[in-house]
Amino acid sequence: MSYDSVKIEFDSTEAVKAIQDSSPTSSNFALIRRIQYLLMNVRSWVINHLPRERNKTIYCLAKKALVTNQ
């Protein structure tokens, strides 16, 4: 599967910085490395910080999924 363009929004400034600043082999976190690896196959991508207060819908869905899986 390939994409021409991807937009990623995180409510964690640390995650945004880790994905932007390091190479796929330098991160200690498997999820960060996986995201970087996947982005290598995308022609154009952008990653932004989105404060949790502005992303209430996603926060509620994630919280619901967490409760459902317990």
UniProtKB/TrEMBL annotation:
Gene3D superfamilies: Ribonuclease H-like superfamily/Ribonuclease H. Signal peptide: none annotated. Pfam families: RVT_3. GO terms for molecular function: nucleic acid binding; RNA-DNA hybrid ribonuclease activity. Residues 3-65 form the RNase H type-1 domain. This is RNase H type-1 domain-containing protein. It comes from Gossypium gossypioides (Mexican cotton).
